[in-house]
C-alpha cells in the first residue's frame, strides 16, 4: 500500500508554483465503497499537518489542497485494492443496486458501441453496454444438452432468477458429424436458441471453440480429425486449420446477424477455450482471433482460462477472463499481470462439478455459492455461473478424463447446478434469486411453474435379440486384412465412425496368448461365449486350446474420448494396431460398425425377436413397452437390476447406464414420449435384468 507522503521540504519549495502532481484533483468515481464520513478520520494526520498553526504559510494553495484531498488520496491505493479486499475478506462495501430494465435486447433499439470496457479516474475498470455501466450476470445453458421443447422454460427460469446473460458452447462435433456435412437443425438450431434468449430478455455470450472441452467427446472436436496422425489438434497445423476454416465458413455467417450491432443479442464471443493449459502453439490463438475478425465478428472478443494459466492463454487485443472454483488470496494475480486496465470477468464460476463412472457424485454447498456471487456483486466483478442448468449427455456425447486411468463422464450433466438436470429449482436457485433481487432496482419476472413429473407402471421387456442375431440388420461390414480403428473405418462418406461399438470377427483354429490394444473396453468371445475383457490396463488374455475352428469376436466400446489435456491427440478408439495369438499376427477381419443410429432400430423392428428367457448372458437387445398415458410427463428410468448398457426410447438414445454408479437413473423428458405406448429398447452388454421402473426423483 502506498503511503501519503505529506509536504516535505522539497514539496514546500514548490507550493508557490501551485499544487504538486500528487495533490492535483482527479475525477471521483461514480461509485465509492467507502462511507462519506469515514475519509476524514482515516486521513486526519495529514489534514492536521496541512492546517497546523505551526505551518509557515497557510496559503490559498494549501487550502485548495485540503479541499481536494478526499478526491485524491484514493488514487494512491493499489488499483485493485477492492479485489485484494475480496480475497482477504477484509472489506464489506454496501451492495450496489442495478437498473438494467433499459438494457435488454428488446428495449435497446439504438445500438452503436456494444459491450465495451471503461475506467474511472480512480482506475477501477468496468464494462459498459452502449455507454452505460454494465455488470455481466451470466449463466450457462447448453442448447445441445436440453430438449428443444424445454429451451424456453430453462431460459425463462434464468431470467426470473435475476440473470441478464446466457452463455453457451457451440459443439463442432455435433454440427459437423461428417466432414463437410453440417447440421444446425432441431436440437442443434443455434440461431433459434439465441433468438429465443433475446425474446426473453437475455444477452448472449457465444463460445464457438473450435475446442470447447465441456466434458464432451474429444472436447467437442470431430473424431474424423483423428484419421490423419500428422494432423495436430489445436495448432496451426495445416490439416487442422483447413478443417477449422471450413467449419467457421459455415458457422460464423450464422452468427453475424445475431451480433449486438446487427440488432441481435450476442454481446461477446469467446476465442477457443482454456488454451493456457494446452499451450502447444504460440501462433494458434492469434490465428483464431484473426479468423473471427476476418469473417465479420465485431463484438467483444475474450479468452477463458484457469487462474493459473491466464498468462499462457492470453492473446493480444482480446479480453482475458478466468475460470475458478472459489476465490482465494491469489486468484486474480495472473490476470492483473496480463491486464490491469480491464474489468474482471469470471467466465466460469463452478457451482458444482461433473461426475465420472465409478466415482462419487459431486455436490457444492449452496451457501458457499451464495457467498461467492454476493462478493462478485459487491466488488462489481462480472461473472458467469457454470452451470446454471447442465442438462444431459444424451446418446454418446459424453467425454472422459484420464489422470492415470480412463474414466468416462456419466450420462447426467446435472453438475449440481442451479437448476437440476430436469430443470427443477434448487436451494441454490432461490438463494441466488433472493440475492439478485436485492440488488435489482426493478422487480424480477415471475418464476415459471415446475415441470410435472410422473411415475409410470413398471415394465418388463418381453422380447430379446442377441447381438449375433442382429448383425444382419447392420450396414454392410468392412472386410480388412488388418483391424481398423473406429475413426478410419471406410464408412460415413469417408469420415469413419465417431461413437458406439465396433465388432471385430475372425475365424481361429488354435488358442494361446491373445494380444490386442483395445480402446476403451473390449469383450472377447469365442463364438457367443465371453472369455474375458481387454482395456488399457489389460491388453492380453489366454484363449484355451481349440478342438475345432471358432469365431474370435472382439466387441469394443468407445466409452468417451478424453476432453481435456494433450491426450486428445491420441484418442483413437476400437482396436489400434495388430491382433496376435502367440506373437503371430492375425489377418482377415470382418468389422461391424454399431453406431446405434435411429435407422438401425427401424430395421431391427423387422427382426425375429424371441421371448426373454429367465436369464441371458452376453450382449443383447431387449424390447418392451412403456405406457405413458394420454399426457406424458417427465420421469426417470431406474435400471437397478440391470448391469451395463444403453436405453433407447422410440429410437432416441437416452444414454449409458452402469451399475458401478454413481448415477442410478436416466432422465426421460416428456417431450420424447408419445401418448400411451412407447417402445423401449435396452442394449445390455453383460447380463439381463428383470423389470424397468420409473421414479419422479433422480438418483445421481
UniProtKB/TrEMBL annotation:
<dbReference type="InterPro" id="IPR048912">
    <property type="entry name" value="BetaGal1-like_ABD1"/>
</dbReference>
<dbReference type="GO" id="GO:0005975">
    <property type="term" value="P:carbohydrate metabolic process"/>
</dbReference>
<dbReference type="InterPro" id="IPR019801">
    <property type="entry name" value="Glyco_hydro_35_CS"/>
</dbReference>
<dbReference type="Pfam" id="PF01301">
    <property type="entry name" value="Glyco_hydro_35"/>
</dbReference>
<dbReference type="InterPro" id="IPR048913">
    <property type="entry name" value="BetaGal_gal-bd"/>
</dbReference>
<feature type="active site" description="Nucleophile">
    <location>
        <position position="348"/>
    </location>
</feature>
<dbReference type="InterPro" id="IPR008979">
    <property type="entry name" value="Galactose-bd-like_sf"/>
</dbReference>
<feature type="domain" description="Beta-galactosidase galactose-binding">
    <location>
        <begin position="619"/>
        <end position="678"/>
    </location>
</feature>
<dbReference type="Pfam" id="PF21317">
    <property type="entry name" value="BetaGal_ABD_1"/>
</dbReference>
<comment type="similarity">
    <text>Belongs to the glycosyl hydrolase 35 family.</text>
</comment>
<keyword id="KW-0378">Hydrolase</keyword>
<feature type="domain" description="Beta-galactosidase 1-like first all-beta">
    <location>
        <begin position="496"/>
        <end position="595"/>
    </location>
</feature>
<dbReference type="InterPro" id="IPR031330">
    <property type="entry name" value="Gly_Hdrlase_35_cat"/>
</dbReference>
<dbReference type="InterPro" id="IPR001944">
    <property type="entry name" value="Glycoside_Hdrlase_35"/>
</dbReference>
<feature type="domain" description="Glycoside hydrolase 35 catalytic">
    <location>
        <begin position="127"/>
        <end position="437"/>
    </location>
</feature>
<dbReference type="InterPro" id="IPR017853">
    <property type="entry name" value="GH"/>
</dbReference>
<dbReference type="Pfam" id="PF21467">
    <property type="entry name" value="BetaGal_gal-bd"/>
</dbReference>
<feature type="region of interest" description="Disordered">
    <location>
        <begin position="1"/>
        <end position="21"/>
    </location>
</feature>
<feature type="active site" description="Proton donor">
    <location>
        <position position="274"/>
    </location>
</feature>
<dbReference type="GO" id="GO:0004565">
    <property type="term" value="F:beta-galactosidase activity"/>
</dbReference>
<protein>
    <recommendedName>
        <fullName>Beta-galactosidase</fullName>
        <ecNumber>3.2.1.23</ecNumber>
    </recommendedName>
</protein>
<keyword id="KW-0326">Glycosidase</keyword>
<dbReference type="InterPro" id="IPR026283">
    <property type="entry name" value="B-gal_1-like"/>
</dbReference>
